[in-house]
Design brief:
392 residues, alpha+beta, five-stranded antiparallel β-sheet, 19% helix, 32% strand
């Protein structure tokens, strides 16, 4: 009997060491409650992070679009000749202007940037033979090829920024900003731009006689530089109003689409000053420098492929006369062409005579070379051409 009673006590003790069903249910309920609260907290945190990222993305999109436009619009007018307009088109959703933004010639001080790999069609004047329709319009441009001294095209290219409806969006107020140089294919600058009928994307300002800015009313837009020649008798009236634009206010609303948390939008506004507006294209180094007389010959150096060597003596305005020649530009065209385009190289001034070797020639080709002297304005002399050079 004593052994049986001790055994019963040990079994009861082991049974009391576990959990009752009620305790398990309570613990499970508490655990599920904690998991539920934590999940809701993490979801809200995730949503907050996603919404913040969406707003940041929309803001960066707007910032990039406006910064791209500002960086280039501020250079409008650089490199244009007297007869070439600075601003070509001013519309509610488009702006077109002329600027010598990019050059392929190393050391070209007349250009904002130098990119030796740039497309040759995007670094010189927009030619009338390549005219195309201005953005969001039916107006063709240009009607004339603007020429610099010596009968070569001006180095200022035509740059366009505009908004176009995003055909991939379900919303009818979502646009894409494009950029185009001359007749080159357009490239996308920014997507997700919201533009409603009452929105003002590009607002233009002119200066009154006291220098105060006054807005050009939207009812007068779009404005085009309709006269073929800037400053000519035909350049008057509404067509000349575009020449008075001195600044542009840009307002962009961009959107970031978030399928889970809804769309995030951001609005950014900036006023861009057209730095060269109102300035006259006057020279600061006197008259155009006197030209030079280049000669060219074919040579074969040490049994290698043929090259062309161009020689010329310095301009009379380099060390005498106005003493303002800073460099010489070299041009090259095939014998079948009648005009030169952008120079293919340049040489700093500073010696009594000059020589340049062109290695980019091949057997059977025929070339004509030209050289101009350039002063500090920079203004060029007339292009003096060599005869036709035949590569053996």
């Amino acid at each position: 009997m004593m052994r049986t009673r001790h055994s019963t006590i040990r079994v009861a003790a082991r049974w009391r060491s576990g959990f009752t069903l009620l305790e398990v249910l309570v613990a499970t309920t508490l655990l599920l409650f904690i998991i539920g609260v934590s999940t809701q907290f993490m979801r809200r945190q995730s949503q907050g992070i996603s919404q913040s990222a969406g707003r940041w993305e929309a803001q960066q999109n707007a910032y990039f679009a406006i910064s791209s436009l500002e960086r280039e619009l501020r250079t409008a007018g650089i490199g244009v000749v007297d007869k070439q307009p600075m601003v070509v088109m001013a519309a509610p959703m488009a702006i077109v202007f002329n600027s010598n933004l990019v050059s392929r010639v190393p050391g070209d001080l007349a250009s904002v940037y130098v990119d030796t790999d740039a497309d040759s069609d995007a670094v010189e004047a927009f030619r009338s033979a390549d005219k195309t329709t201005l953005p969001n319009s039916s107006v063709p441009y240009p009607d004339t090829t603007y020429m610099a001294n010596g009968g070569v095209p001006t180095s200022a290219e035509t740059i366009a920024f505009w908004l176009s409806k995003d055909s991939t969006s379900k919303a009818n107020n979502e646009y894409i900003m494009f950029r185009r140089v001359n007749a080159m294919p357009p490239r996308v600058v920014a997507t997700g731009i919201i533009a409603n009928p009452t929105d003002t994307i590009f607002q233009y300002f002119k200066a009154d006689t006291a220098g105060n800015l006054t807005a050009i009313t939207p009812a007068t837009l779009p404005l085009y530089h309709s006269a073929l020649i800037h400053g000519s008798p035909a350049d008057t009236g509404k067509g000349a109003m575009i020449d008075s634009i001195v600044s542009v206010r840009v307002r962009l609303t961009t959107i970031y689409h978030d399928a889970r948390n809804g769309d995030a939008t951001r609005r950014l506004e900036r006023t861009i000053r057209i730095m060269n507006a109102g300035l006259n294209n006057t020279t600061t180094c006197g008259d155009a420098p006197l030209g030079v007389a280049p000669t060219a010959l074919v040579a074969i150096i040490a049994g290698g492929p043929p090259v062309v060597i161009i020689n010329w003596t310095r301009s009379l305005d380099e060390v005498t006369g106005e003493k303002d020649v800073e460099r010489y530009a070299l041009y090259k065209r095939s014998a079948s062409q009648t005009t030169f385009s952008e120079p293919f190289s340049s040489v700093p001034a500073g010696t009594a005579s000059y020589m340049f070797t062109d290695t980019d020639v091949h057997s059977g080709e025929q070339w004509v070379y030209g050289v101009t002297a350039i002063d500090c304005t920079p203004t060029s002399s007339s292009v003096t051409a060599t005869g036709i050079i035949t590569i053996p």
